[in-house]
Amino acid sequence: MATKRPKFKYTYDVFLSFRGEDTRKSFTTHLYNALKQVGIEVFMDDERIAKGEHIPSSLLQAIEHSRISIIIFSQNYAGSSWCLQELEKIMECYKTTQQEVFPLFYDVQPSEVRKQQNAFGKAWERLITTFPIRKGRKLAINLKRVLNEAANLSGWDMQKYRTEAELLDDIVKTVTMRLDNSKYMFVAHHPVGLDSRVQDIIQLLSCESNEIIIIGIWGMGGVGKTTMAKAIYNEMGQSFVGKSFLANIREVWKHDNGQVYLQEQLLSSILKTRRINIPNVGLGKSLIKEILCQKRVFIVLDDVDHEDQLKVLCERREWFGQGSRIIVTTRDERLLQILQVNKVFNVRGMDDNESIELFSWHAFKQALPERNFNELSRRVVSYSGGLPLALEILGSYLFDREIPYWESALNKLEQIPNGKIHEILKISYDGLSDQIEQELFLDICCFFIGKDRSYATQVLDGCGLHAEVGITHLIERSLVKVVKFGNKNIFDMHDLIRDMGREIVREQSPTKLEKRTRLWSKDDVLNVLENNIGTMTIKGLSLNMPRNNLVSLSTKAFENMKRILLLNFDHVQLNGDYGCLSKELRWLCWHNSLLENLPTDFNLEKTVAIDLKWSNLTKVWLKNQVMEWLKVLNLGHSHCLTETPNFSKLPYLEKLILKDCPRLCMIHPSIGNLRYLIMLNLKNCIGLEQLPKGIYDLKSLRTLNLFGCSKIERLDEDIEKMESLMILGASHTAITQVPISIMRLKNIKYVSLCGYEGLPRDVFPSLFCRGCPQQIIQSPFVKPLGSRHR
Asked: Which of 201, 700, 718, 758 is deepest in the core (most CB within 10 A)?
C-alpha cells in the first residue's frame, strides 16, 4: 500500500549558497550544470528570482523549500552579509525540518571556516566592522556559532581531490543517492492535469500480482513523460524493498564512464549505500542481475534512447525479483517493443482548459489569465498544442510583460520558434540514426504533412530516402504521426515538431534564402523566384497561392535550380521555356494549372508522381514522353480533359486517378499494358460510355472505381482475368446485367454494384438470385444503396 504524501512539499532538490565573485564564473556553474544534467532541480539565485521580486524573502523561501543545501565556503564567503543570512536560514532548516546540509570547502580549510582564520578570517573581520555597535557583538557571536556548526558537518574538501571533475562527480553521486533514498522527488511546480494521466499506470502497477511488470511511457519531447514517472515513483516507491530513479539516461550515457556510472547509481540506490565501485560494464551487468534478482524493486529508467542502455541496465525480466515494477520513459517506441513491456502508455497533450491553467500559473502566477490577456493567452495555448514544456517556457518568458511585448513575441514565434523549446525537441531529430532519416523528416515537415502515407512513401523512395523504413523510425520516435482519414493514412505532426524541423532548414542560411535546401513560405519562395536568385542548393520548393491571387512567373527563375526534386504549385502560372526546369524532378504537384497540355520541353523522365488536379488540361501530352519512373498519375477534377495519354511509355505506373473528369470520353487502349497498375479511379466520369477491352488485362489491379460513371452499361465476362481485383465500386452506373464470371474472382473483398454493397459472398447471391425481388431486399447481409426499398 502506497504511503500518503507529506503535507510539506519541496520545490527544489538542491539550494546552492555561494559567494558569486569567488565561484560563479567557474566552479558553481559547473556544479549547477552537473546536477541539472542528471535531472536534479537546483536553485541558484540568478536563475529563479523574477524581476521586481523582493530578493531576500524569495531566497529564504527557496531555502525552506529545498531538500538539500550545499554551502560553498570560499575565501570571501564570510565577507558577505547576504551569504551569512542564507547560512543562518540553512542551519535553521537543518534543525527544524531535517534538511540535509553539505559544506563544500573551496580553496579554504574546514578549520579556517570554524575559527575564521587566514583569508577567510580577514573577510569576516571586514564584515563585522560594519555591524551596528549595540547589536554587533551578539550578532557576531551567533554567526560564529553558525559557521562552526556548518563547518563541522560532513561534506567535501576540494584539496582532497585530484581534479575538479572528480569532485563534481562525487558531489553528484552523493546528492543523487540522498535524493533517491529520500521520501519524495520534486515533480513539478504546478502539476496541472497530472493525476488524471498517471492513474491508469498506477492502477496497473499496484496490482497484487507477483509477476514482474514493465511499463513504457512514450511520447514526444516535452510532453511530460519524466514528470509522470516522478509522480508514480513518489506514489508507489515507498512500498518496495529497493527503489531507484535513474534520471536523464540519454545525457549521462554520453559522458566518460557514463555506462558504469549509471550501473553504480542503480545499485547504490537499491542498496542504500553511498558508493559502489564497478570496474567495467560487463561486471556491472552481472552484479545487477546477481543482487537484484532476489529483491522486489521499483525502478525508473528515464529518457532511454538506445538499445544498449537497456542491455546494461535491465536486459531481461529475470534480472529482477518477483513483484518488481520497472518504468521506462522514452521517445522511441521501438525500444519498448524490444524490451517486451507489458503495456505502452502514449502520453497525450493537455486539453485547452489544462493548457490555459498551466500557462497562467507561469505567466500570471494564478490559475487564470488576467482580463486583458485572455485572447493573447489563447493564442499561446493554440501555438503550444498542448505541450506542457512549451506552456511553461512561454509562460515564464511572457511573465510581467506588457501587451505590445506579447503581440510582438507571438508574431515572432510564428516565424522563429522559441530557442529553449526548439533545442529540447531537436534532441529527437539529432538522435535519428543517419542523415537519410534526417532528410526524410525535413521533407515531410516542409511538404508532406496532410499527404497520404503510401503516396508520400513512393515519392520519397524515388528520392533515394528508403522511406518505408525511415518513416517507421520517425513514427516510433514520436516525430511523425499517421492518422486515419477515410480510407487513407495521412501524415500528421505536432505543430511544434513541424516548426522545429522547418527551423533546422532556416538555420542552414538565416539571411540568404537561396542557400536553404527547402523553401515553403510564400513570401520566401516569391522572393527567390521573382528576383531570380535560385541556386543548386534548393532541393524542394512549394508555392501555394490563394484562389483569387494567381501568380505568373518566368521559367527562367528555375535556370540555376538544377537539383530540385520536389515541386509543389497551386494557382501558379509559368511562362517561358520549360527546359529551364530541373530534369531531376521526382514529384510534380501542380494544382489549378492553366496549361491545356504539358509542354514538350518539360522533361519529366525521372518523375515518380505527377499530381495535376483541378487543371485545365484537355490532353496531357501532345507528344508522349518515356517515363519509366512514374508510379502515380493524378488528373482528378480536370474538367476539360477529353482523353487519357498513351500509356505505352509509362510501363511502371501503379496508380491512375481520373476522378471527376466529366468530359473524358476515351481511355487509350494501351492501358492494358500497365502490368503494375494496382488502382484505377474513374469515379464520376459521366462522359465515359465504355471501358476499353484492354482494361480486363490488368492482372495486378486491386481497386477499380466506376462509381457514378452513369453511361457505362456493362462489364465484360473477361473481368475474371483481373485476378488481383479486391475492390469493385460500380454503383450509380447504367449496368443492369452482371457477367457471371465475376463470381470467379478469387481475391474480391468488397463489391458495390446494381444498388448493393457488401461482402462478395453476400452480394453475389443477391445479384444472381432468380427468385422474388423481395427476397433480395430482405437479405440481412446486403446493404441497399440509396434507399431501403427498390
From this structure: 201
CA nearest neighbour of 667 among 630, 699, 704: 704
Q: State residue 273's pLDDT score.
A: 72
The reply to whether 1 falls in a domain is no
Beta carbons of 786 and 756 less than 8 angstroms apart: no
Residues 305 and 229 in one domain: yes
- CA distance linking residue 230 with residue 227, whole number of Å: 5
Question: Are 597 and 729 members of one domain?
Answer: yes
Number of structural domains in the chain: 5
Residues in the chain: 790
Distance CA 437, CA 467 (A): 8
Which three cell numbers, joined as nine digits, stand for 448?
A: 508532406
Clarify whether residues 308 and 397 are in a common domain.
no
How far apart are alpha carbons 88 and 106 in whole angstroms?
19
Residue 50 is given by DSSP the state P
Q: Which residues contact 699 (CB under 8 A, 6 or more apart)?
A: 675, 721, 722, 723, 724
pLDDT tens digits, residue range 348-372? 899 999 999 999 999 999 999 998 9
Instruction: Give me the torsion for CA of 589, 591, 595, 598, rounded to 10°.
Output: 20
Does some domain include residue 30?
yes
In terms of residue numbers, what domain contains 367?
Answer: 352-415
- In whole angstroms, how large is the CA radius of gyration of the chain? 35
State the Cα–Cα distance between residues 597 and 643, nearest whole angstrom: 12
* Percent of the chain scoring above 90 in pLDDT: 65
Question: 379: closest CA among 394, 396, 365?
Answer: 394
Q: Where does a domain end: 415, 446, 464?
A: 415
Mean pLDDT of all residues in 329-338: 95
Alpha-helix runs per DSSP H in 535-679: none
Task: Work out the number of other CB atoms within 10 angstroms of the CB of residue 8.
Answer: 9
Catalytic pick from 41, 86, 112, 654?
A: 86
Least confident of 83-87, 243-247, 275-279, 351-355: 275-279
Q: Which residues pair with 573 in a beta bridge?
A: 552
Cell of 653: 505506373
Distance of CA 404 to the CA centre of its chain: 31
| Beta-bridge partners for 703 | 679, 727
Residue 28 domain flag: yes
Beta bridge partners of 634: 611, 657
d(CA 397, CA 217): 29
Dihedral sign (CA 760, 761, 766, 768): positive
Residue-wise pLDDT tens digits, 473-493 = 999 998 999 988 888 899 999
Residue (of 296, 300, 291, 288) closest to 214 by Cα position = 300
Q: Do the domain assignments include residue 475?
A: yes
Question: 391 and 318, same structural domain?
Answer: no
Do 747 and 725 form a contact (C-beta atoms < 8 A)? yes
User: Residues 6 or more apart from 582 whose CB is under 8 A from it?
Assistant: 558, 561, 562, 563, 564, 565, 567
Query: Residues 6 or more apart from 309 whose CB is under 8 A from it?
Result: 249, 250, 253, 262, 301
Crossing angle of the two packed helices 81-96 and 133-151, in degrees rounded to 10? 60
d(CA 586, CA 608): 5
Helix (H) or strand (E) holding 476: helix 467-476
What is the C-alpha separation between 568 and 446, in angstroms, rounded?
11
Displacement of CA 161 from its chain's centroid (Å): 42
**Stated pTM of the model:** 0.74
CB count within 10 Å of CB 9 equals 12
- Tell me the H-state helices in 508-570: 522-530
Integer Cα distance of 292 and 157 in angstroms: 34
DSSP 677-738: --EEE-TT-TT-----GGGGG-TT--EEE-TT-TT--B--GGGGG-TT--EEEE-SSS--B-
Residue with cell 531535517: 98
Q: Can you tell me the distance from the alpha carbon of 431 to that of 121, in angstroms, rounded to the nearest whole number?
A: 52
Helix pair angle (388-398, 352-363), 10° resolution? 30
Q: Are residues 167 and 28 in the same domain?
A: yes
Active site residue 100: no
